[in-house]
Design a protein that fits this description.
Blueprint (H helix, E strand, L loop, with lengths): L4 E5 L3 E7 L5 E7 L4 E6 L11 E7 L1 H20 L9 E6 L22 E8 L2 E4 L12 E6 L1 H13 L15
Antiparallel strand pairs: 1-2, 2-3, 3-4, 4-5, 6-9, 7-8, 7-9
Length: 178
């Protein structure tokens, strides 16, 4: 298990760091403004402003969430990669943003909203995974939903999570107004 150190930076925010296997150090400075800085150090030193800094990259809130999801998603990807070989099965990740309909809501029952044949396999929150969440599991911004089903139904579920509405297409050969 990785040992993460947390240091308050007065007037700035919080610095989280951990030591890498090759002796380097990776840190994230979370500013009170909402921005984050990703910092990689050449070697392990407890001082956030030491001369051993290699790289610093400023990320806005969306970019920080995206990076976290990409890094966190690898754990699930490795576990589910063999399932993606099943024809007709799509496994996809839905990162929950603040403006998504599902943010702050319980997962609910997709079938009750007309989306049958799709399942939320897990909800990833930070470093923890909540497998097979119940319909009353509350979803928050920053969570990532792992959804399985046919590609069309997964897309339909994502549209519902984003807007709260289900878009239905009229048949191509239907008469106007039918």
């Amino acid at each position: 298990m990785v040992d993460v150190r947390r240091v308050k930076l007065p007037g700035v925010g919080v610095l989280h760091t951990f030591r890498t296997e090759d002796g380097g150090k990776v840190g994230v400075i979370t500013h009170r403004s909402g921005h984050s800085d990703l910092v990689a150090f050449a070697d392990y030193d407890d001082s956030p402003d030491a001369d051993n800094q290699k790289v610093s990259l400023r990320l806005d809130e969306d970019e920080a969430h995206t990076l976290a999801e990409l890094l966190g998603g690898t754990q699930i990807t490795e576990s589910l990669s063999s399932l993606e070989q099943v024809p007709g099965l799509s496994i996809d990740w839905f990162p929950v943003d603040y403006d998504d309909y599902i943010a702050g809501q319980p997962l609910g029952d997709l079938g009750a909203h007309g989306v049958v044949g799709v399942t939320v396999v897990a909800v990833v929150r930070g470093d923890s995974t909540n497998p097979a969440p119940a319909p009353d599991f509350k979803v928050f911004p920053g969570d990532t939903l792992v959804v399985a089903g046919s590609p069309e139904k997964v897309a339909k579920a994502f549209a519902y999570y984003r807007t709260g509405e289900l878009k239905t297409k009229a048949p191509v050969d239907a008469a106007p107004g039918a």
